From TrEMBL, chain A:
Keywords: ATP-binding, Nucleotide-binding, Transferase, Ubl conjugation pathway. It comes from Capsella rubella. The keyword Phosphoprotein does not apply. Accepts the ubiquitin from the E1 complex and catalyzes its covalent attachment to other proteins. This is E2 ubiquitin-conjugating enzyme. The lineage of its organism: Eukaryota, Viridiplantae, Streptophyta, Embryophyta, Tracheophyta.
UniProtKB/TrEMBL annotation, chain B:
It comes from Capsella rubella. It comes from the Eukaryota. This is RING-type domain-containing protein. InterPro entries: RNF25, Znf_RING, Znf_RING/FYVE/PHD. Transmembrane segments: none annotated. GO terms for cellular component: nucleus. SUPFAM superfamilies: RING/U-box. Residues 223-243 have a biased composition (Basic residues). PANTHER family: E3 UBIQUITIN-PROTEIN LIGASE RNF25, RING FINGER PROTEIN 25. Residues 71-97, 121-264 are annotated as: Disordered. GO terms for biological process: protein ubiquitination. Residues 146-164 have a biased composition (Basic and acidic residues). PROSITE patterns: ZF_RING_2 (PS50089).
């Protein structure tokens, strides 16, 4: 699943295009709270603004998510990263990679950009400390050359956040 | 109290699974309201009642198994990690007869979609005839290797069925929430006829929808009775708890919370 699904520049399949157009229309009619899709003409890469939820450590902070869709979306998960500067969070690396299982092994084609966004916001909201993951430096060093987080061997050992 | 909860749950689930909704995979309506749109056949997974276009769920099924095949063939290190986290829910990698519902991850069996595979098989005998409609460019469903894989799979399934080797968990002890489970009546008991009629009427409440979707997708009506009402939520792999909780679209969550309230 992973090695073949690096953010290659392969064009979206027809199925992927149809599905994304549908998602875009639905997003425009009913965007998830706290998110703004930055309008471009690129269906294959969405840039989404995230506003930290009120009452959380990230209240009023603004971040940007970049979502790249593979040829066979939604069978394959999109690549989702935070653009610089990524929020300080125990599951978010300074290079923007996010340790969140639904983005990798637990992806399901019934998930949408909108549901991903909600999961990410909920992950932010439940954090109790603004901190990098303990292995941040090691991980980021190993990710040189713009490696996709989808090639990472993730271990989802923390159930709390 | 429990019965009320169950009834409400059935109601909610019924609404959620209403075929008027969209296919969770392509997001297009299962039942297009405007006449212009082409009606695509859809089906319902009997283990969880989630509905999909036939071609959409089959695409997922094939993708799942193509991934599995690739994993087991390559033995690539980058894949081995999945054995420890997510893979259990998908498979038990050797088992080709299992898939999981894209919406709730509940495991379903090859037999749940087998009738649709048949449908596809009969509709597109030639590899290039365009599966059901407009999917000519989908190489996954059309490729020779996929056709071979499917044939091989179907023959295995048949063998398994013949030998009684298919494990179909919980079917025999399933209770449809809010419904009365008829005791196994001995075949000879004619005085019970009326009572039986009453029961089947009661069960009939949920029948029409299923019949509708079943006939829309295939003719194998006999599968309907067997699978109906297998417990919802049971059979979720506990290892997937975290993952399922993070799916905001997942109906189980509501059900679990309500059940907890009710138990107090
Ligand atoms: Zn569909
Ligand atoms: Zn389901």
């Amino acid at each position: 699943m992973t090695s073949s699904s690096a953010p290659s520049r392969k064009a979206l399949s027809k199925i992927a295009t149809n599905r994304l157009q549908k998602e875009l229309v639905e997003w425009q009619m009913n965007p998830p709270t706290g998110f703004k899709h930055k309008v471009t003409d690129n269906l294959q890469r969405w840039v989404i603004e995230v506003i930290g939820a009120p009452g959380t450590l990230y209240a009023n902070d603004t971040y940007q998510l970049q979502v790249d869709f593979p040829e066979h979306y939604p069978m394959e998960s999109p690549q989702v990263i935070f653009l610089h500067p990524a929020p300080l969070h125990p599951h978010i690396y300074s290079n923007g990679h996010i340790c969140l299982d639904i983005l990798y092994d637990s992806w399901s084609p019934a998930m949408t950009v909108s549901s991903i966004c909600i999961s990410i916001l909920s992950m932010l909201s439940s954090s109790t400390e603004k901190q990098r993951p303990p292995d941040n430096d090691r991980y980021v060093k190993n990710c040189k050359n713009g490696r996709s987080p989808k090639e990472t061997r993730w271990w989802f050992h923390d159930d709390k956040v | 109290m429990l019965v009320e909860l169950c009834e409400e749950a059935v109601e909610r689930l019924t609404i959620m699974n209403h075929p008027d909704g969209d296919c969770p995979l392509c997001l297009y309506p299962l039942f297009p309201e405007d006449e212009g749109s082409k009606q695509m056949p859809f089906m319902k997974l009997m283990s969880c009642f989630h509905c999909f276009h036939c071609e959409c769920i089959i695409r997922w099924w094939n993708w799942l198994h193509a991934q599995k095949d690739a994993d087991s063939e390559s033995g690539d290190a980058s894949h081995t990690r999945r054995g420890s986290t997510a893979e259990q829910g998908n498979s038990g990698s050797a088992d080709e007869s299992l898939g999981n519902c894209p919406v709730c991850r509940k495991i379903f069996h090859a037999s749940d979609i087998e009738h649709v595979l048949d449908l596809v098989g009969t509709q597109s005998p030639q590899p290039d005839s365009g599966l059901i409609q407009g999917e000519e460019e989908d190489p996954l469903l059309q490729s020779d290797s996929e056709n071979i894989r499917r044939e091989r799979f179907e023959s295995i399934l048949k063998t398994q069925e013949e030998k009684g080797g298919l494990v179909q968990p919980k079917k025999n002890i399933s209770v449809v929430p809010g419904m009365y489970l008829p005791p196994p009546t001995p075949a000879s008991s004619s005085p019970n006829k009326e009572e039986e009629a009453g029961q089947s009427q009661e069960q009939g409440e949920e029948e029409p929808k299923e019949a509708e979707s079943e006939t829309n997708s295939s003719s194998s009506a006999n599968r309907r009775g067997r699978g109906r009402g297998r417990g919802r939520g049971r059979g979720h792999n506990p290892n997937r708890r975290k993952q399922t909780l993070q799916d905001p679209r997942k109906p189980m969550r509501q059900w679990v919370q309500r059940a907890r309230e009710g138990d107090n």
